[in-house]
Amino acid sequence: MSELQRAATREKIAIIGMGCRLPGGASDYRTYWENLSQGKDCIVPTPSDRYDIRTLASQHQTKPGRLVGGRGGYIDGFDEFDPAFFGISPREAAHMDPQQRKLLEVAWEALEDGGQKPAELAGQDVGVFVGAFTLDYKILQFADLGFETLTAHTATGTMMTMVSNRISYCFDFRGPSVSLDTACSSSLVAVHLACQSLSRGESMLALAGGALLHGAPQYTIAETKGGFLSPDGRSRTFDASANGYVRAEGVGLIALKRLDDALRDGDPVHAVIIGSGVNQDGRTDGITVPNADAQVTLIERVCAEAGITPGGLQYVEAHGTSTPVGDPVEAGALGRALSIGRAPGARCHVGSVKANIGHCESAAGIAGLIKTVLCLKHRTIPPHINLEEINPAIDLASLPYEIPTRAVPWPDHEGPAHAGSIPSVSAVPTHTFCSKPLRRTERPVCRGNVARLPALPFCP
């Protein structure tokens, strides 16, 4: 390995700002933390402005054109947006994917939270890395076989590339602008790529995260047919009654800088990323079945590059989908990894925010990462809810960690606090963090009036 490669490996990346829209009315990370601290279950019946559950729901998984559950995690203000604030005409905004709209809002707020003035960043090497998965608004616009819903703004309004490019364009950012889809790990793969871009000097600041919003029922129906979803719409990660995951919405971005640059500039620092990595499961018993060996290998590698052992972690935010197959595999893999180098008596906790908000798919990783950062900042691990009886395939007594069902203080430790976040069982990035104190700066505040835009009707 060259000296440059070694330097890149050692580069620490500061999280200086965060913005999000998450279920339970969490229009910012402070409300999100309140929900988690209180052990709030944010999964609710599907709102009528998404699609009509009365005609689509069924308890019979195999019934054609029907979905099970009829519940999920949903954000507020799904169809609200102020286009003039971002220099966008109402006509264009009406054909923009709501994911693009909410990402613009959250990008502004993440920069604002980090004490950054977007106008002063125009023309600079600011990178944007965004993970996305389903494009429901594209389904709606292209479902009209009369093609009357297709306009001059449909292409840019529905292309996946625009989830990142729209931000770069509106703010005049000149760094890399990357839209990516690695399914459930998309948003943390985006963070991984952003960290690499900063380490290489391609970007002087980066926004990274992901989005997923529901506007059409097709993917929920398809996932029903695949047997992935909970028939009763309950998320019970690691519980004996776990019977599938619950789909959820989410939008989240974090603002990143090289740690040395952030300290030089007096930026607030929420936490520091000291290592990240990505791998894939390869061939398993099924394309959706996880590979425990791949998970352990990645955790070991990332921790080694970060200069710690997995046993030095005090908290891990697990993927934890609430599936009877995936949960035990991940629990066992974490048990193997977290025992490596763990001192006798050194406590560790594991949890999953999906028990609170459901599975945000392409935004699941960023939801878990923001939770992990907040745990570090508040030195508290919130309760892991909906765990009444541990899955019998998980021998919790033999594992080197606990799953707290009530809020607990951060475990005693020497040196900096360390935590990790694992977003996916197919492309598994692991992000390990070292906490840093928040330093407040004067932050610009600029928000426009919200205008409600028309939503396109669903055409069956």
From TrEMBL:
GO terms for molecular function: 3-oxoacyl-[acyl-carrier-protein] synthase activity; fatty acid synthase activity. InterPro entries: Ketoacyl_synth_AS, Ketoacyl_synth_C, Ketoacyl_synth_N, PKS_Beta-ketoAc_synthase_dom, PKS_NRPS_Biosynth_Enz, Thiolase-like. It comes from the Bacteria. CDD domains: PKS (cd00833). The keyword Nucleus does not apply. Signal peptide: none annotated. Keywords: Acyltransferase, Phosphopantetheine, Phosphoprotein, Transferase. The keyword Transferase applies. GO terms for biological process: fatty acid biosynthetic process. Residues 10-436 form the Ketosynthase family 3 (KS3) domain. Belongs to the thiolase-like superfamily. Beta-ketoacyl-ACP synthases family. This is Ketosynthase family 3 (KS3) domain-containing protein. It comes from Streptomyces haneummycinicus.
